[in-house]
Design a protein that fits this description.
The chain is α+β, with helices and mostly antiparallel strands and 253 residues long. It contains 7 helices and 9 strands.
């Protein structure tokens, strides 16, 4: 296959040795399967802002800190330099989130670095070595749905312990293999303490996952994990191994 232009510098620098095939094309990036030495990984090429279709990006970038004051001013003005900095900030957000969540015990693809707008990371595979399917392409038993839903809720909790909310979590942003669910696509991850939309996004993330798993285990539709998790967060009682129940007494007054 013809090597994508954005991957050519990585080939020249020896960061990757071969581009094997395209894996997927999404709203903010194209992903390719690549070989790095003896390992098979994936390379995520971020699309430019004009080609990206991610809606209401300002809601997600609220609260993100830019340490360099010159860069911050340029981003506010929307100059050419500022737009370039916005792109780098958007791309680096996913890299930073992956490293942070990987260390926090959330199952995400292991990151290997971001180079000129290309993220190199672990390729999640099934038991046969093929690319793992997305959750929306998977059917499961009621028992498996309950088990995987509980695992995803634990990941949502650990993300919040690490200070992040995914912000776009759904059956399309979760991969599944024999070891369970894997959370992907994090460029829009928000700072839970600094973003005013964080609670609403967490509630939407949890609802999306409960609605999907609830198709196989209907009792999950009557749980209240988002309220339980956020209440623990607000009270300063959240910790990574907290045992969630999904029960929460809603204030109806």
């Amino acid at each position: 296959m013809k090597t994508p232009k954005r991957l050519q510098p990585l080939l020249q620098d020896g960061l990757i040795d071969e581009v094997i095939h395209p894996l997927m094309s999404g709203k903010e990036a194209d992903v390719f399967v690549v070989r790095c030495g003896s390992e098979i990984r994936c390379a995520k090429i971020y699309k430019d802002a004009v080609k990206r279709s991610f809606k209401k990006a300002a809601q997600y970038t609220e609260g993100r800190k830019v340490r360099n004051s010159r860069r911050a001013r340029a981003m506010e003005k929307g100059s050419r330099f500022g737009r370039k900095q916005q792109e780098e900030t958007w791309q680096n957000a996913e890299v930073d989130a992956l490293y942070r969540l990987f260390r926090a015990g959330v199952r995400v693809p292991e990151p290997y670095g971001c180079f000129d707008g290309v993220l190199l990371m672990e390729l999640i595979t099934d038991e046969d070595g093929a690319s793992a399917p997305r959750l929306n392409d998977v059917t499961m038993s009621e028992e498996q749905a309950r088990e995987d839903h509980a695992q995803v809720m634990q990941y949502v909790l650990r993300m919040l312990c690490a200070g992040l909310v995914h912000g776009d979590l759904s059956e399309f942003n979760v991969l599944v293999n024999d070891e369970g669910p894997v959370i992907i696509d994090l460029p829009q991850a928000v700072d839970a303490a600094a973003n005013n939309n964080a609670r609403a996004m967490l509630e939407r993330d949890v609802k999306n996952m409960s609605d999907y798993y609830g198709m196989f285990a209907p009792e999950l539709l009557d749980t209240h994990y988002a309220h339980e998790i956020w209440a623990l967060f607000e009270d300063g009682e959240l910790h990574p191994d907290h045992q969630l129940s999904g029960h929460f007494e809603l204030d109806t007054h």
